[in-house]
Amino acid sequence: MRVPQSYIQKCKVVAHSLQAVLVFVATVLTIAVMTKEGSIKGATKYFLAMVSEQSSWGHARCRPRQR
User: Fold this and answer.
1) In this structure, what DSSP letter does residue 38 have?
2) Among 1, 30, 41, 49, which residue's Cβ finds the most Cβ atoms within 10 Å?
3) Nearest-angstrom CA–CA distance, 22 and 16
4) Helices marked H in 1-67 — which ranges?
5) How does pLDDT run across 19-63, given as a tens digit for each residue?
6) pTM of whole model > 0.85?
């Protein structure tokens, strides 16, 4: 049985999907920068750590509760 979604819930799904795509693109670009020769500044490492933490935190937070 499917639970009907309201307009706000559908907007949240679209927003989170867009966020996932942007996080993926940002991660790919960060890895591309890190594979180039030369030194890597702390901001790049910090950004990759924050993106990785955000994506893993989001998945753990969105799991449905067990009853």
Assistant:
1) S
2) 30
3) 10
4) 7-35, 42-61
5) 889 888 988 888 888 888 888 888 888 888 887 766 555 555 555
6) no
Q: Which residues of 11-47 are buried (b: 16+ CB within 10 A; e: fewer)?
A: eeeeeeeeeeeeeeeeeeebeeeeeeeeeeeeeeeeb
Residues 2, 26 contacting (CB under 8 angstroms) = no
CB contact at 8 A, 51 and 30: yes
Query: Tokens for 8?
Result: 């706000």
Structure token pair of residue 56: 């893993």
Query: Which two tokens mark 3?
Result: 């639970």
Q: How far is CA 8 from CA 41, 44, 63, in A?
A: 40, 35, 19
